[in-house]
Design a protein that fits this description.
- There is one protein chain.
- With 355 residues, this protein is α+β, with helices and mostly antiparallel strands.
- The protein is built from 8 helices and 9 strands.
Length: 355
Amino acid sequence: MFTATLDNGYILYIRMPVASIHESVKISNKFLYLIGGFTIIIGGFVVSFISRRFTKPILELNDIANKMAKLDFSHKYRTTDADDEINNLGKSINTMSDKLEKTINRLRETNVELEKDIEEKSKIDEMRKQFISDVSHELKTPIALIQGYSEGLIENVNTDEENREFYASVILDEANKMDTLVKQLLELMKLEYGKREFNNDKFDICELIKEVVRKSSVMLNENNIEVEYDKTSQVFVNADPFYIEQVITNYLTNAIKNVKEINGKKVIKIEIKADIEKNTVRISVFNTGENIEEEKLNRIWNRFYKIDESRNREDGGTGIGLSLVKAIMNNYKKDYGVVNKENGVEFYFELELIV
């Protein structure tokens, strides 16, 4: 109930229900809450949208910077035409990323070249040390012989012409052996350290074998050795004829030195087997004689190694023939080796077949 005073002095008493007033207040409050809630929600969305517009490019720039710190320059900031601080910052970061990427790539290339130079220098230094060591070791005997026979000539130890000629021939022979040894050692070093380029070409391996056998005919005839091989077939391979001739020559020379008479004959057998499926040709050189001890089969490829340590220097060998074979075949990455057979030994190597 509430009162109101009229103009004539009378007081008017008005009575209203309290429940109705409370209900009106509640409705008003709910409306105000609802309006306030909507205002807060809409305001939150507006603030979030606006803040995202500012924070998203900053977060993107931060992500790009982190990737740059890990040397990943593949991500770039997507610039716009807007002339604001963030867009300008993004352009600057892109420019810095490009320059850093180019600089680091140049540094990497320089580092790779430097590593190659260091490795090359290390190889050359190792090759030089090995060459000096080998030459120093192997030239002691021929130098001593040359020195001894030279002193004999100077001091006229033998006055007759025949002995003087013998002394001179020994000196010449030892000098030739030294020359051959040094040349072969240099060739071996270059092959082992990748300093030789191979001039691969298509050629008939059968024709090359015939030529090698022809060149060795004097030694074969002197030792009454019978050589068995197919003189009519043609098999073409892809390789460097010069180096493959060295392989065949070394195998054949080795067979001549080690061949023994079996059943009244000294036999060297050369076989050529083509495998079309594997695209390879296998060339083998067999000689009758004694087998090689199992523990020595791998060691024979080492330079200066001789199976028969008692063999004197009259065989004319330098002890690096099979080492040359190993170095040549390693450059071709083809199979090679030695196998004990019944009544003899077989050396072999493989080449790429040209059909």
